[in-house]
Amino acid sequence: MKYIDEKSPAKLNLILDVLDKREDGYHEILSVMQTVFFCDVLRLTMTERKKITMSSNLDYLPNDGDNLCVRAAYLFFKTAEIKSSGLHIHAHKQIPVAAGLGGGSANAAAVLRALNRYHGNIFTMDELVALAAKLGSDVPFCVRGGTQLAGGRGDVLEQLDPLPFCYVVLCKPQRKLSTASVFARFSQEGKQVQPDVPGFLEALKRQDLATCASLMQNALADEKLYEDLPDILGIMRDNGAFGAAMSGAGPTSFGLFESAEIAQVAARALQRKYEGVFVTSVRGSVDAE
Ligand code: C5P
Questions:
Q1: Within 6 Å (CB) of ligand 1, which residues are found?
Q2: Could you give the residue range(s) of every CATH 3.30.230.10 domain in the chain?
Q3: In this predicted model, what pLDDT tens digit does every residue of 39-93 receive, in sequence order?
């Protein structure tokens, strides 16, 4: 039986500004997004059953058409007009679910990339990104990866200079909130912080990691909603982070570090209070080794 293993790396929103609410209900955003090495691994097995099935190492994940991976596979086969398509997807999940790290979006993107490669790259990268936008706002970025400026609802991408290499500590507190509810609350409460995206982009152009890190901020990071946020960001900074911020709609926060050793010290300090702590590093592209 033929199979493909595809890595599905998490994303960070290094900086995230939220602009107006659009007529389609989405919010216009401006965000610098970054791929990291921390990833899930998908195994796509071609089967004879003419059905798309799914399994994972997490018993609470849906394995049917509610899973974005299954939807991605159906969308791919339908658009490519491939009829006899039996497929089983097994997701080995490591990225926390509903955490602001784009885990589900990255999985869907990995399915699109892997199927496209298997079928001889029938879609160009731009076509694959357009397909991805039909699945969710973060899926286009996850198809491309690297360091990108995301506009629109997250689906309009512009390639940026790569973020200089650094180590990343992720910390996911227990809080569970849906992306939709976090955006809805933002609409009601208005903006509490004003991220300086132009300043961040200038610093990135100069490859000035310290200034980029000091400007990292998230317009969705409402401390009333995420009670642990000041504590987590404080521990990161007190333990040597260049800067720290929340990713996406949270609740995961991350800090950037100069060395693996300093990152490990910060991770140990966080682990005394929080369970979901991971050390990783930035990844220049989705297929970087
Ligand atoms: O696109 P996705 O399915 O990830 O979005 C989930 C929900 O988050 C949307 O239904 C919308 O309520 C909210 N959202 C938003 N603006 C964005 C992205 C998501 O309001 N740019």
A1: 25-27, 29, 136-138, 153-154, 179-180, 183
A2: 3-159
A3: 999 999 999 888 999 999 999 998 888 899 999 999 999 999 998 779 999 999 9
Smallest CA separation from ligand 1 atom 21, residue: 153
To the query of whether residue 11 is one of the catalytic residues in this protein, the response is yes
Task: Provide CATH code, domain 3-159.
Answer: 3.30.230.10
CA Rg, the chain, in Å? 19
Mutation pick for ligand 1 pocket among 183, 188, 191 (CB with most ligand atoms within 8 Å): 183
Q: Ligand 1: which of 11, 26, 68, 177 to mutate, most ligand atoms within 8 Å of CB?
A: 26
| Coil vs helix vs strand at 244 | strand
| Strands 3-21 and 52-56, bridge-based pairing | unpaired
- pTM for the whole thing? 0.96
CATH 3.30.70.890 domain extents, the chain: 167-281
* pLDDT, averaged across the chain: 95
The pLDDT tens digits of the residues spanning 229-267 come to 999 999 999 999 999 999 999 999 999 999 999 999 999
Q: At what angle do helices 125-133 and 68-80 cross, to 10 degrees?
A: 130
What is the spatial distance between Cα 66 and Cα 96, in angstroms, rounded to a whole number? Answer: 18
Domain 167-281: homologous superfamily in CATH: GHMP kinase, C-terminal domain (3.30.70.890)
- How far is ligand 1, taken at its centre, from the CA of residue 118, in Å? 30
Q: Distance from the CA of 151 to the center of ligand 1, in angstroms? A: 13
Residues 6+ apart with CB under 8 A from 233: 244, 245, 246, 253, 255
Q: Which residue's CA is the closest to the ligand 1 atom numbered 20?
A: 26
The Å distance, Cα 33 to ligand 1 centre, comes to: 16
